Amino acid sequence: MNNVIFNTDLITSKTNSTIVKIGKLMNKKSRNEDHLFVCNGIKLFEEAVNCKVEIPYIVLNNNSEFSDNIILKLKSCIKNHTKIICVTEQVFEKLSDEKSPQGIVAVCKFLNNITTRFTFVENEKVMMLESVRDPGNVGTIIRNAAAFGIDSLVISSDCADVYSSKVVRAAMGAIFKVKICIVDNLSEVILYFKSNNRRVMTAALTKKSRILTKNSLTPTDIIIIGNEGHGASNEVISLCDETILIPMAENTESLNAAIAAAIFMWELNK
């Protein structure tokens, strides 16, 4: 029993004040008020610990068994002032939206690599997102950015919340590593990059769009991925230096936003 291992009381009530507080973190407003978010599962817990994320609470399903390595990591968290909370399976289900929960939920503080203050370092590889609403897409793009060496993601504030459980899960630990800047005015950032001699392009179909080819991009180019259903806005398109298309077979639908972003990241990384 985990409450015995970690010398803590077993919480059996869903109305326990701490459980209610953690449960509210499924809501964006509560996350922003408390500056806390939830990581579900062993993989994300390990990544959070490895990245030295501040973890105020860890909730354990008292019926779950953990490896010796995970128990050691949990004990190391206690030394860093993390509170271990053991709960019954019924209580745990209130805190996890996983289809196959692994019995561990880490409640983490907001991350230093995610900011609403725009900063830019010369020669950073940058990608921008405008109104990408699907959390699976946003999380996958963050994961791809880490894999393809993108230093910074600049995303509009109406994109899916990066701290939502679906984004965090899809990012698979990359959420702790990639620099992410959330901005209210993407147009101002585009103009800033252009004034610093960065070529800004968006994936869009216009009369002047050119096809992505082997030598289309350089590492200093910045690509904007637009909304899944409507693409980039007219305002963003008008500000960009170029619009660019990924070549596809005839009579096919446009690519998923995350897949398109991965292709552009690959080209930038080359």
Structure overview:
With 270 residues, the protein is α/β, with parallel strands linked by helices. It contains 11 helices and 13 strands. The termini are far apart. The relative contact order is 0.14.
Short summary of the structure?
With 270 residues, the chain is of the alpha/beta class.
Query: Strands across the major sheet, in which order?
Result: 6-9-8-7-12-10-13-11
Strand residue content: 15-25%
- Low-pLDDT parts are none
Mean pLDDT: 93
How many domain regions? 2
CATH architecture of the largest domain: 3-Layer(aba) Sandwich
Count the helices. How many?
A: 11
Principal-axes geometry comes out as: elongated
Distance between the termini: 51 Å
- The computed structural class is alpha/beta
Chart the SSEs and their pairings.
Elements: H1 2-5, E1 10-11, H2 17-23, H3 28-34, E2 36-40, H4 42-50, E3 57-61, H5 68-79, E4 83-87, H6 89-95, E5 104-109, E6 114-115, E7 126-129, H7 135-147, E8 152-156, H8 165-171, E9 179-183, H9 186-195, E10 200-203, E11 210-211, E12 222-225, H10 234-239, E13 242-245, H11 257-269
Parallel strand pairs: 1-4, 3-4, 6-9, 7-8, 7-12, 8-9, 10-12, 10-13, 11-13
Antiparallel strand pairs: 2-5, 3-5
